[in-house]
């Protein structure tokens, strides 16, 4: 489409099944420290409580894959290279998607006149995947990501909550079948059952959402992943249909796609803020960045340069970072 969306669908606001699934997920404690998942109560699953007057949701998909999957796998297998989840290599998508949705709403307004609406893109308590599934954009896979038959799962979602009684699109069938490739590929077995992800075990949660120390049981499995994890998507057979995005804003910036772990650890706070300007990565802050890189270096091949880089950061390190630097050094000393 002219506005850069690859698919748009419309759904009603009935999310009873999704609400039950969310309530059970929260009851199981699978959200870990993500208290915001329960803060807003039923506003998350009842759109008209979040935005009064809402009767329909316009859901939109915009593809972001910045490089071929084979190249991502090559980088993931390089123990001295930092792996950043592909969605975070470029500019933060939140503003871009919302601005496109705003333009779409303006287009609609020129056709039907003034109407009530509000746009979102992972920016409020919105059940994005459940709404997208109901609008026919795809189905929720066993890894809990949305999958489109013609495009895989490398895409962002956005929504327009509206009071327009628009016709709804048909739901598509779930095409995961008996496949469990995503479950088998998860380094920490975070997909504890089909369609059930324990975030406390997920590398994306551990490297992004968790503020404190990363549990010892997961550190080796993290490998060189310093921000997020794409393993379940890389393993999904439906992603063979995914194509590289033409969006310039989603291309890698500041060399994040080829960043070495030693260079990543050397960034001081100013350098971190400068090189993550306009990036989703900035939200974790410099301390968690160093924590994550320390673990990745602990999992890298032993070498004098790696040990030296870790030792240099010990002086002046915070308690949190220091703990992970010492763990990383211990991995190399024990391997000698």
From TrEMBL:
The record's GO molecular-function terms, alphabetically, read: 4 iron, 4 sulfur cluster binding; cobalamin binding; epoxyqueuosine reductase activity; metal ion binding
Catalytic reaction(s) noted: epoxyqueuosine(34) in tRNA + AH2 = queuosine(34) in tRNA + A + H2O
Instruction: Write out the GO cellular component annotations.
Output: cytoplasm
What keywords tag this UniProt record?
Answer: 4Fe-4S, Cobalamin, Cobalt, Cytoplasm, Iron, Iron-sulfur, Metal-binding, Oxidoreductase, Queuosine biosynthesis, tRNA processing
**Localization of this protein:** Cytoplasm
Q: How is the cofactor bound?
A: Binds 2 [4Fe-4S] clusters per monomer.
User: Cross-referenced Pfam families, in alphabetical order?
Assistant: Fer4_16, QueG_DUF1730
- Primary role: Catalyzes the conversion of epoxyqueuosine (oQ) to queuosine (Q), which is a hypermodified base found in the wobble positions of tRNA(Asp), tRNA(Asn), tRNA(His) and tRNA(Tyr).
Which proteins does it associate with, and in what oligomeric form? Monomer.
| Similarity comment | Belongs to the QueG family.
Fetch the PANTHER family from UniProt: EPOXYQUEUOSINE REDUCTASE
Q: What is this protein identified as?
A: Epoxyqueuosine reductase
Q: Which organism is it from?
A: Candidatus Methylospira mobilis
